[in-house]
Amino acid sequence: MTKDDCLFCKIGKGEIPSATIFENDEFKCFLDVAPASRGHALIIPKNHYSNIFELDKAVAGKLFTLATDIAAALKEETGCEGMNLIQNNGECAGQTVHHFHLHLIPRNSGDRVGLGWPQGKADLDDNAKLAEAINKRLQ
Ligand code: 5GP
Ligand code: ZN
């Protein structure tokens, strides 16, 4: 499953070069070309899934298992103190490449990486109703 016009499908197939950290039949992990910090890496499935809503569940499980190993290696190699794992879905959520990818961003105290959002104040009644409604969809 590939898309001819997809940048990350091309990187997955090696048609576009990347600084590759890890690769097997199903996944590729490579360094971001415009990193938020040194070692900023992306993990992709080689098959094309646009986003979390399309991603195959078994692939998701394997990808996150792989992420635990890569995160550990990245932390050891860069000496970072912490790490953000970020995954954007949809343009409104900041996704610019519409092939599922997980960002691993090494972090250090005092770095200038700008992530975060202004905190809202939850309506606790609405939270309770919403949680129940979503839970029903999971039955
Ligand atoms: P998104 O905004 O979709 O969550 O993240 C896309 C990421 O892909 C960005 O961090 C961007 O810097 C990275 N990126 C875009 N084009 C390329 C490329 O050609 N090579 C590599 N290595 N990274 C890319
Ligand atoms: Zn793709």
Write structural notes for this entry.
With 139 residues, the chain is of the alpha+beta class. The protein has a single domain, classed as HIT-like (HIT family, subunit A). Helix content is 31%, strand content 18%. A 5-stranded antiparallel sheet has the order 1-2-3-5-4, sandwiched between helices. A hairpin with a 3-residue loop joins strand 1 and strand 2. The longest helix has 22 residues. It is globular and about 50 Å long. The relative contact order is 0.16. The site of zinc ion has 6 residues, from helix 1.
Question: What are the key terms here?
Answer:
single chain, HIT family, subunit A, five-stranded antiparallel β-sheet, 139 residues, alpha+beta, 3 helices
Describe this structure in a few short sentences.
With 139 residues, this protein is α+β, with helices and mostly antiparallel strands.
Radius of gyration: 17 Å
What is the strand content? 15-25%
Numbering strands along the chain, what is their spatial order in the largest sheet?
Answer: 1-2-3-5-4
What CATH architecture do you see? Answer: 2-Layer Sandwich
Class derived from helix and strand content = alpha+beta
User: CATH homologous superfamily?
Assistant: HIT-like
- Which residues sit in consecutive blocks of at least 5 with pLDDT less than 50? none
| Tally of contiguous helical segments | 3
- Describe the global form: globular
The CATH C-level name is Alpha Beta
Oligomer: single chain
Give the distinct bound molecules: guanosine-5'-monophosphate, zinc ion
Number of beta strands: 5
CATH topology: HIT family, subunit A
Arithmetic mean pLDDT: 97
Largest sheet: 5 strands, antiparallel
What is the terminal-to-terminal distance?
Answer: 30 Å
- Please give the domain count: 1
Helix content: 25-40%
